Amino acid sequence: MYVILGIALILTAGLRGFESTPDTEGYVAMFEGTADAIQELVEPSFTFITTIMNAMDFDATSLFLTYAIISVPIHLSILWRLSKDYPFTILTIYISYYFMMHEMVQIRAGVAAGLFLWAIYYYVEKRKLLALSFILVGIFFHYSALIGLVLFVLKDKLPKWQKIVLYLIIPIGLVIYFSKIDISYLIPDSLTGGKLAVYRELNDKGIEDELSGWPLERNPLIWMNFILYYASIFYNEYLSERCKYVVVAIKVQAVGFLFLFFFHGFSTVLANRLNDYFSIASILLWTASVYAFSPKIISKLISNFISTARFVSSMLFYALSLLYM
């Protein structure tokens, strides 16, 4: 059943219409070589795939299908590995938001995010070389995967002072976010291969407004993650006894929030993309929350209810994006 659902997800992502998500038309333009500023952000893997598909005279559907064939199995295999006790519960969590975000919208970053989830798994399992390998492979699919190396400074312990720091990230970050403070000038363009300059160009031309997505104050999905984040910190000892990936997942999610808050003043697109990349770790936190309730059937019902709410919210989010962007 798990494999059959995986095939269905591949076909759903690979055979969708060209106007089905906010980013799809942009990918079609990149595939056809008609994009301008965005074209400078294309990774070697994307160029390789599009070159082959164009040489075979295929249309952009072949691009989406290829990425779905790569990304969906990467995600589903690690989800199975991370939660053998509740494989379909974690699958519903993935479908509720991350499938849409990674396989239907950010297809390049989606592959990198799936590989990063594998990196988190191997990092916690003390197989750091394998963890590093998955992050490095992810860079070929999306350059933002390079920032995933921050994983190696995160420890699987959570002393009291770190809890305080983690608690303060959101309130301080919200002040920074709504103040639109730009800290990008602290990062030399030479360290990013000129990518910061490209995002500035997107912003200056107004292209970013079409790509940035729904603002934080009207995005219920992010606020759900805020609540999950605080609950996970508060109950981390209990949850960690049942899911050893919780502490690292909390810290990875915190890093995502930092990028969301501190890069918003420079580029909303970049801030959201980096947050989405690190927020793949919240799959672990949503799954671990199943252990917070008893009996288990109640936990599953609550988890499925939340997943349904997230799914409906994400569908409305993208429907409104298509209407107004």
Summed up, what is this model?
By secondary structure, the chain is mainly α. Helix content is 70%, strand content 0%. It contains 16 helices and no strands.
Give the uncertain stretches in residue-range form.
none
Strand content: under 5%
Largest sheet: none
Q: Secondary-structure element order, as H and E?
A: HHHHHHHHHHHHHHHH
For the secondary structure, the number of strands is: 0
Describe this structure in words.
By secondary structure, the protein is mostly helical. Helices cover 70% and strands 0% of the residues. It has 16 helices and no strands. It has helices at residues 2-14, 24-32, 44-55, 60-82, 87-105, 107-124, 128-141, 160-179, 195-205, 208-211, 220-234, 236-242, 246-262, 268-278, 282-288, 296-324. Helix 5 (87-105) packs parallel to helix 16 (296-324) and helix 8 (160-179) runs parallel beside helix 13 (246-262). The protein starts with a helix and ends with a helix. The model has no long low-confidence stretch (mean pLDDT 83).
Which secondary structure elements does this structure contain, and how are they paired or packed?
Layout: H1 2-14, H2 24-32, H3 44-55, H4 60-82, H5 87-105, H6 107-124, H7 128-141, H8 160-179, H9 195-205, H10 208-211, H11 220-234, H12 236-242, H13 246-262, H14 268-278, H15 282-288, H16 296-324
Essential attributes:
70% helix, mainly alpha, single chain, 325 residues, 16 helices, globular
